[in-house]
Amino acid sequence: MKRLFYVLAAPAILLFVIAATDAPVETAGGPEGPPLRPMVAAAVSFVAADRQVGRQTLPAPTAPTAEYVGSDSCLGCHDDATKKLGGTVHWKAAHPRSPAAERGCESCHGPGSRHIEDPGSDTAIRKFATLTPREANSTCLSCHTKSPHTMWQGSAHDARNISCITCHSVHDPKSPTAQLTKATQTELCATCHRVQATKMKRVSHMPVPEGKMECSSCHNPHGATNVKLLKTGNWINESCVSCHAEKRGPFLFEHAAGRESCVSCHDPHGSSNDRLLVAKLPMLCQRCHIGTRHPSTIYDSTAFQSKSVRVIGRACVTCHAQIHGSNHPAGQAFTR
Question: What is the reported pTM?
Answer without folding.
Answer: 0.70
